[in-house]
Amino acid sequence: MLFQTLDDKSECVGIYCNGSLHFDAADFPAHMSKTWKYSEYLRDRGEIEYANLYVQDKKMEEVIPEYLREDWNEVAARLLAFRRSLGIGKVDIDSHCIFDLIPTRFLADFCEVKNIITDYVITHYERPQRYEYLLKVCQLLEDISNRPLKINDQRLKAFISGEPRDGPIRRLLGAPPYIRYNQFGTKTGRLTTRRNSFPILTLKKRLRSVVEPRNDYFLELDFNGAEVRVLLGMLGMPQPSDDVHEFHRREIFGKKKSREEVKTAFFAWLYGSKSAETRLYSKHLEKFYNKEQVLDQYWDGKKVYTPYRKEIDNVDEHHALNYIVQSTCAELTLLQALKIDHLLRSQGSHSHIACIIHDAIVIDFSQKDEALLGDIKQLMESTKFGRFKINVSSGNDLGNLKEFPT
User: Fold this and answer.
1) 164 part of a folded domain
2) Would you say 265 and 256 are in contact if contact means Cβ atoms under 8 Å apart?
3) Radius of gyration for the alpha carbons in the chain, expressed in angstroms and rounded
4) Listed residue (175, 258, 247, 262) closest to 211, CA to CA
5) What's the N-to-C CA distance of the chain in angstroms?
6) Residue 290 falls inside a structural domain
7) Which of 243, 286, 278 is nearest to 261 (CA)?
8) CB 3.0 to 4.6 Å from 125: which of 54, 109, 209, 228, for a disulfide?
9) Pick from 306, 324, 342: which residue ends a domain?
10) Count of CB atoms within 10 A of residue 248's CB?
């Protein structure tokens, strides 16, 4: 049965189905099966197919069949007009349910067109091979997006002194305190944030101190040298128990370079820098790492196939190794986050994942859950490429995290 959600916010429960609007989850029809996009209140509703996961990085406008384009353009224009009028009236949409602000007759018309488009996409597009994984990630990111961040406005204002009126810090004061990730924002699978999101991925480290936990403290777990360890794992090489850049310094460069120089050299080589200095370092790194073995296994000359079965089209040799490693790291981080999220949910914990920042998972942690710390650490360390050394930090704000005693 086709249906559409009326709002993504967890507290704004509402759907359109069979020509009617329903606002009580207990009254939802029993056999809902197809909709455009997941919402948090659908998590336990059984087998539902989500059309946006079929088309991934494509917008609805890109997949509409021509015979529906006029209908879609009409309802989309009306929705935009409603949103503009709410903006002029300074109505904060994040603080209200959209169905309380827009006429129900229009909502029904809009959802009816969306139903037809949903049915078209699910019928005519191939179901992604990794659909279940994509859905699990979508659910996790939706949970994160529905939890408002705790922003210390007084601390934020202290950073503003001397900044121009349209400066990035001033814009943070008016930014919605929600992280809205784009699951399909990059070719490699690394997360990006949407335009109306709190800019957690690009926030300068000095500004992270304005983000505070809602529980007792932040707990951050990140891999020590994720890219290096993924490459070692793909080549079947053992994982070093110490810092990977010290490992490189010792095993490849004979301690003739500093740790920072060795780290810079590795990433320059991995990302395909063509500088003269990098070419000198590359000779040492390529003696140690069999680049061709990785390319032969995961790149066919045009397309990358990662160990997690992600496919990336139109990749030349210059970018192939980078894409293989970067994509695998991105998905490895998401998989670890899914495992940790499942643990926290299954244990009925008070803690939750607050955000994912590149290769780091940040938990808004409650002291009531400290018995779970060992399990969380073990889940993060355990990967298909071996046991990774991880860094664990904690603190009372996101900008001042210190090594956590474990």
Assistant:
1) yes
2) no
3) 24
4) 175
5) 50
6) yes
7) 278
8) 54
9) 324
10) 22
Whether residue 75 is contained in a domain is answered as yes
Q: Give tens-digit pLDDT for 359-405.
A: 999 999 999 999 999 999 999 999 999 999 999 999 999 999 999 87
For the chain, percent of residues with pLDDT exceeding 90:
65
CA atoms within 13 A on the CB side of 97: 15
Classify burial at 147, counting beta carbons within 10 Å of its beta carbon; exposed 0-12, middle 13-18, buried 19 or more.
middle
Q: CB-based burial of residue 47 (10 Å sphere; 0-12 exposed, 13-18 middle, 19+ buried)? A: exposed
Spatial separation of the C-alpha atoms in residues 357 and 192, rounded to whole Å: 10
Q: CA torsion angle for 113, 118, 121, 124 (degrees, to 10)? A: -90
pTM for this entry? 0.91
The whole domain housing 360 covers 144-223+330-403
Final residue belonging to a domain, choices 308, 324, 340: 324
- Do residue 273 and residue 368 come from a single domain? no
In the block, tokens 């400290």 appear at 370
What is the tally of structural domains in the chain?
3
Element (DSSP H or E) covering residue 83: helix 66-88
**Sign of dihedral through CA atoms 196, 200, 203, 207?**
positive
My answer on whether 54 and 108 are in the same domain is yes
Asked if residue 137 belongs to a domain, the reply is no
